[in-house]
Amino acid sequence: MTAYLIRNVSVVGGAPTDLLIRDGVVAETGAGLTAPDATVLDATGLVALPGLVDLHTHLREPGREDAETVESGSRAAALGGYTAVCAMANTSPVADTAGVVEQVWRLGREAGLVDVQPIGAVTVGLAGERLAELGAMADSAARVRIFSDDGHCVADPKLMRRALEYVKAFDGVIAQHAEEPRLTEGAQMHEGEVSTRLGLTGWPAVAEEAIIARDVLLAEHVGSRLHICHVSTAGSVEVLRHAKARGVKVTAEVTPHHLLLTDEKATTYDPVYKVNPPLRTAADVAALRAALAEGVIDIVATDHAPHAVEDKECEWAYARPGMLGLETALSIALDVLGPQWDLIAERMSRAPARIAGLDSHGLDPAPGVPANLTLVDPAARRVIEPAELASRSRNTPYARMTLPGRIVATFLRGEPTVLDGKAVK
Ligand code: DOR
Predict the structure, then answer these.
(1) How remote is the CA of residue 277 from the centroid of ligand 1, in Å?
(2) CA 59, 64, 70 angle in degrees (round to 5)?
(3) Which atom of ligand 1 is nearest the CA belonging to 323?
């Protein structure tokens, strides 16, 4: 195993120091380290962060390998600075059995670019009718701890209660896609002034807020852990604030696109901006940013949702919802939060690792810690060219935008997955 001596790096925004990586761990830190056998990387001007952890990634395998595979998504993740991703269950077949989650987990190990932690479905086939084999998935080699029907809401309150109760036995968490389905029938975009102007059926904020309110009460009632996927409205933030003040064990994520883009994008009719939940108003964006800074929203999660060209480049009404996210998330966070490195490390690495129970991730580089880390050049600016992305899909909403920050290197257990901004394999 090659040793690496990273010179002059700012660890999470601190004063420049050296990091020696050997045998999969950070062996030493401090100024002026020497290690004759090590490969030296000059990291002057770069910031080292604990490897990013994404709690919400769609890898599409099995079933839609034309849009993404575990390997291509893993490569996109590593290039985005990630060392671990949680793979959503809405594959084909659905990841609702030990067999499928083990398959995804094994494919992740074979790709070897990030740790792929499968998420299991809450209900069989995501149909919202019967609980899936939660215990069997938890006991499998994939050791599933997060369960989600993401893409669909667990709308039945009795089933949601059962799921919350069930996962307590192994300290699991239910990650809810909060969308009251009766309130969003036929919805195409955020319900508001822009949808009225465009004549498109609206997805009202209350459809999200009503489910979050219900589920924090259920989680409180049964004493279970609840996680809310892709929070998108100011009202949801208020419900979460209230629940957290009561001590409910609820955590929440926001996506980079909900932190940056608004429903005005729909006026282009470009389906690249179609996403679920939809882009909201500028007031919602402001509330989400404040909640993220404050901690009412715990983490940034990408909801990386690759889609094949034919599913995206069509009429708005027929396009699938979803956007790419892994290769641009850190840049969006830097754009939105500025160089608040400790906050970025907390929201994009430490907290998601804690929620997912990924013990070897989310740890700041320090002696003895597994060398899962990423090096960022905060001064770099790059133009996003869809054709240059490692994802198999091209549905980025940031095409040809100039974004701050560049991932220079990523290390997984001491081995580089990205060097000089390029994937190593
Ligand atoms: O926009 C979305 N796309 N939202 C979801 O909840 C699911 C995802 C997908 O799987 O494409």
Answers:
(1) 8
(2) 30
(3) 1
Q: What is the pLDDT of residues 261-291, one digit of tens each?
A: 999 999 999 999 999 999 999 999 999 999 9
Examine the domain organization and report whether 165 and 301 are in the same domain.
Answer: yes
The number of the ligand 1 atom at minimal distance from the alpha carbon of 152 is 6
Q: Establish if 24 belongs to a structural domain.
A: yes
Q: Is the CB of 58 under 6 A from ligand 1?
A: yes
The pair phi, psi for residue 371, each rounded to 5°, is -80, 70
pLDDT value, residue 1:
80
C-beta of 275 in contact with ligand 1 (< 6 A) = yes
For the Cβ of 321 lying below 6 angstroms from any atom of ligand 1, the answer is: yes
Residue whose Cα lies nearest atom 6 of ligand 1: it is 151
> Under a CB-based contact definition with an 8 Å cutoff, are residues 348 and 330 in contact?
yes
Residue 361 forms part of a structural domain: no
Tokens 């009412």, residue located: 296
Verify that 383 and 259 share a domain, yes or no: no
Answer yes or no: do 80 and 123 share one domain: yes
Across 291-327, b (16+ Cβ under 10 Å) vs e yields bbeeebbbbbbbbbbbbbeebbeeebeebbbbbbbbb
pTM, rounded to two decimals = 0.98
Please state whether the peptide bond connecting residue 271 to the residue before it is cis, i.e. omega within 30 degrees of 0: no
Instruction: For residue 291, give the H/E element and its range.
Output: helix 282-294
SS3 content of the chain, % helix, strand, coil (to 5): 35, 25, 40
Q: 389 in a domain, yes or no?
A: yes
Q: Is 281 left (phi over 0), alpha (psi -120 to 50) or beta?
A: beta
Expressed as residue numbers, the domain containing 400 is 4-47+367-423
pLDDT, residue 102, reads 98
Say yes or no: 371 and 305 in one domain.
no
Please indicate, yes or no, if residue 263 is contained in any of the structural domains: yes
> Measured from the CA of 321, which atom of ligand 1 is nearest?
1
